Amino acid sequence: MVTLTVCLDSLQAIFGVQQNFSYPGSQWNQRRSIDRVVRAEHLLLKDYLPSGLPDGFFIPADRDRDQKEEAMVIILREGALDLELQELEQFLSAYNVQIKPTVGEHTIIWGLVGDTSKIDIDGLLIHPCVKDVKRIQEPFKAANKKFHPEQTVVHIADGIDIGGGNFQVIAGPCSVETEEQITEVAKDVKASGAKLLRGGAFKPRTSPYAFQGLRAEGLELLLHAREQTGMPVVTEIMSAAHLPLFKDVDVIQVGARNMQNFELLKELGKQDKPILLKRGLANTIEEWLMSAEYIMAEGNQNIILCERGIRTFETATRNTLDLSAITVLKEKTHLPVIVDPSHATGVRRYVETMALAAVAAGADGLIIEVHNDPPKALCDGAQSLTPEQFDTTMKKVEKLRRFMETEINN
Ligand code: PEP
Ligand code: MN
Is 90 exposed, middle or buried (0-12, 13-18, 19+ CB in 10 A)? Predict the structure, then answer.
């Protein structure tokens, strides 16, 4: 007979009692010690104990709560052979995880305690005794709020931080076009309150015939605008081979199309500059955080995430701004999150409302495209605000931030 222990706060909240429960063990189970612990999500229990929670599930004793949580659960096939289980145990022994088996009437599950981030789910599923595998703990560690509860503050320059209560607006043209253009826009957006200047020198364009950016010359012009205004600059990198050109840049942007360019991410992990990591066109939040993890695993912890809209069936906007990503990320990670309403909507007249919505949702900043003459812009004119429009937007953003700080968040 085996004692099952359900160790989940939410279950305790649901049932409010502690009860002992005994279940007949299987062959496998009889070989194992008596005290079994299940630490599984409520959903998982519902899925794999189909008759629901049997009467008498043991809701956690404090002793159990002190134990380390299970990070992964393996659901075994009914009738799995001892030999198959031994092979699985052997496979897992390479990962330095503890196995906590739990036996139900028809289902045996193994909870794995320890660092499961290196365990490949496919590698488990090829074992004949494995029916399903669920991760309970996220596969990202460095970016995980659980292991790093304090908010990361990314320091950019004297008095310019992002995250942990520091809100910043980055503004400027989609691409650097001429010295006059970038310098003029820089002065305008600075006057309106933007603290960082954006401008692409290497542009990822869908068509190879479209303007590709001024490349090295564009970076020089951007740095010249920094000299003129004192604003730190943010610009996109497309290849690790260009890194030497970026040595004086303040923040390196990884664009949506490169979010999963893992070799590039690894190289950026070796830099000491802040990285603005945009969300991929069709990537999940978890994939995005795993990309941040690539950079962090190499050493660079200074990452700002940027939600810039994702591909959906909707065509009224260029992308669909996933505002819920902000709130999800705030729960999952300590990294700052900013929003790009320009690429998210693709339409100038929609930018302001989405910028305000992002502020209301708790974003740590905004990145907004501004052009001194949008109809003549070489790239993304349709979504670029004029300096006057940007100024109005900034005033509303400031008002809303004050309201949030004084009326809502207090
Ligand atoms: C950009 O910021 O100019 C850009 C190309 O953005 P994204 O990678 O989000 O499309
Ligand atoms: Mn653009």
Answer: exposed
What pLDDT, in 10s, does the model give residues 29-79?
332 322 333 333 333 444 445 455 554 444 333 333 334 678 899 999 999
152 contacts 188 by C-beta, under 8 angstroms: no
Give this prediction's pTM.
0.82
End-to-end CA distance of the chain, in Å? 53
Mutate to test the pocket of ligand 1, among 211, 212, 308 (most ligand atoms within 8 A of CB): 308
Residue nearest to atom 4 of ligand 1 (CA): 255
Distance CA 373, CA 194 (A): 19
Q: How far is the CA of 380 from the centre of ligand 2 (A)?
A: 5
d(CA 384, CA 103): 60
Kindly state whether residues 287 and 359 are assigned to the same domain: yes
Q: Which amino acid is at 104?
A: G
Alpha carbons 221 and 150: distance in angstroms, whole number: 37
> 182 CA to middle of ligand 2, Å?
14
**In-domain check, residue 53:** no
Q: Partners of 255 in the beta sheet?
A: none
Structural domain boundaries, residue 211: 154-405
36 shares its domain with 106: no
371 Cβ closer than 6 Å to some ligand 1 atom:
no
